[in-house]
Amino acid sequence: MAKHPKEEKTNVVRILEAAGIPCTAYEVPLPKGEVPDGVTAAKLLGKPPEQVFKTLVAQGPKGEHFVFVIPVAETLDLKKAAKVKSVSMLPQKQLLPLTGYVHGGCSPVGMAKAFPTYFAEEVILVDTMVCSAGKVGFQVEVAPDDLIALVKGQIADLTTAPSH
User: Helix, strand, or coil here: 148?
Assistant: First the structure.
């Protein structure tokens, strides 16, 4: 399917541009009110799922928060993540007040507060990665190294391939 460059700029795109990071923004053609899973979003963009990443927010035992950026077809392995930090997934209702983003529109860029951010090691296999541009239906493509540097992220073994 054809790419859909979008003129509307989200806050994420503005932050990337202000930092001098080249990026391409896309609007995913969605049926009204629908929030697709990441693999479906990748297909709608015409991108391979291994190039498209989702942003997950987890919480530690003392109430601290962590951001994990993993390929859309993968699952965050909480045991592997616990080697980085002991975590559990953040309840969805807490996402917006904590990050400023809604489910399906969460980006590692421009959260209401900076949190420790970890990227799945698969990120080193792609020249560019696609992640949420901070709004449901909007994605941004960027070089992984640029994004990792911007959010002061680290690379870690975090995923388990989903069982089919």
Answer: helix
Structure tokens at 83: 């080697």
Handedness of CA 101, 51, 72, 147 (dihedral sign): negative
Strands 117-120 and 65-71: parallel
CA distance 143 to 139: 13
Q: How far is CA 31 from CA 5, 12, 17, 41, 44, in A?
A: 18, 23, 29, 12, 11
The distance of Cα 116 from the centroid of its chain, to the nearest Å, equals 14
pLDDT tens digits for 137-160?
A: 899 999 999 999 999 999 999 998
Q: Find the length of the chain.
A: 164
Can you read off the two tokens belonging to residue 21? 């990071």
pTM (whole model) above 0.70? yes
Give yes or no for residue 124 having a pLDDT over 90: yes
Q: Which uninterrupted H or E stretch holds 96?
A: helix 95-99
User: What does the DSSP 8-state code read for residue 129?
Assistant: E
